[in-house]
Amino acid sequence: MSSNIKQASILYNTLKSEFTSPNPDLKKCGDYLAKLKIALSEMQLLLPEGEINNSDELLVARDILEIGAYWSVRAKDIPSFERYIAQLNTYYTDYSSLLPPSQSMYPLTGLNLLRLLSQNRIAEFHTALENIEPEQLLENIYIKHPVHLEQYLMEGSYNKVWNSRNEVPAPEYLFYIDILMGTIRSEIASCSEKAYSCLPLADAATLLFFKNNTNELLSFARERGWNVSEAEKKIHFTTKDDDHIEIPSDNIIKQALNYARELEQIV
Question: Which UniProt keyword terms apply here (predicted)?
Answer without folding.
Answer: Proteasome
